[in-house]
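Extended Data, record Gfo/Idh/MocA-like oxidoreductase N-terminal domain-containing protein
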Amino acid sequence: MADVIPIRIGVLGCAEIARKVSRAIQLAPNATLSAIASRSLDKAAAFARANRFPPDAKVYGSYEALLEDPDIDAVHMPLPTSLHLRWAVLAAQKKKHLLVEKPPAMNVAEFDKIVEACWDNGVQIMDGTMWLHHPRTHKMKEFLNDTERFGKPALVNSCFTLLADSDFLKNDIRVKPDLDGLGTLGDLGWYCINAILWAADYELPETVAALRAPVHNDAGVLLSCGASLHWRDGRIANFHTSFLSNLTMNLTVTGTKGTLHLTDFNIPQREDQASFTTLVNPKYNDLRTTWLSLPIEHTIETALPQETLMVEEFARLVAGIKRNGSKPDKTWPAISRKTQLVLDAVIASIENGFEPIEILG
């Protein structure tokens, strides 16, 4: 990899997730951390020091200044979701490839405007859903595609919750309607929906119906909610997300012959390896007191953490456009758009008395 010219990435904002992605950029063999921007020059400089940016990384006191830098190929955008439309479109117009935090927009209409700007300017867009890039995810898909062991898909359950403290529930941007107004649905629920669609090979459901009794804060932002998704062929999926429950990251995919299960689908419990279990055609004894077959645990090792693999894939696509004249890859934004469509449908169902919402996009 010594002859690889790295893609130069600037970070647009000093959010907490930018710490993780900045480290990932530095670990990626085909990317380099080239700049940081904040609305405060002092804040940007402090962030660069705290996160060990390279000595030659540039520090900017405005987002505009970073986007004007001709030496920056791409940007990571960890800004509040309500700001994505403005700054993502401007980044695309400045020919900066875009790694944007999820959810990439407040709704699918905003997302379409961002993507249109990216295509018009020939730049790549990818959202920051890291777990899709882990080798465990690819290995699990092999099991789901095995008709002899898994059979036909029937049911998916996903759950991502965390118990937020009082400071979070009062001050975090994810509970502010003018910043991240989608609340837990946009933050944690995005992963639940994304995992369901991944298990369904990204086939959209026919209908989405929000579960009753969602919890909102005083500003109307969702703190806890869930939904059921239904496909024409009878498949069902359910998810629950919350800032009010113990940390849980469960994903279970059930087929006619086998079941896949994991308890850390979004953030592996270890950085260098991750596990999942499969159970195929289980049976129990005549008295139904003992199982005759037990789940098998599969452990997948990785030399690089999943967020670095995400950056590596993003930089590979950018390099293809920049150096080989390739067109922006549409796979990743297509996944983002479908996830955003389902998220929109959950909100619409809540607003319409929990009636099922048809997915038309």
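Summary. The mean pLDDT is 97.
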